[in-house]
Amino acid sequence: MAIYLVTFGVFLLVILAMAVGYIFQRKSVSGSCGGLDGIGIVKECDCPEPCDARKKREARAARQAEWKKNQII
Fold this sequence. Notes:
NqrM; mainly alpha; 58% helix
């Protein structure tokens, strides 16, 4: 039973260390091989034109950015 508790404690310490590192660096977790760009895929979807849902998200984000830019306070 002691081995299980020690193993669990080690895992908790590793997770805590990763969390602290993320909080201080504010860097997203990434793989060691470079992600999809490493195999020649530039983006997740190779569609010639974005779908309607993505267009709406991008328009909403642009409106929010414009609003924040013009915000008086």
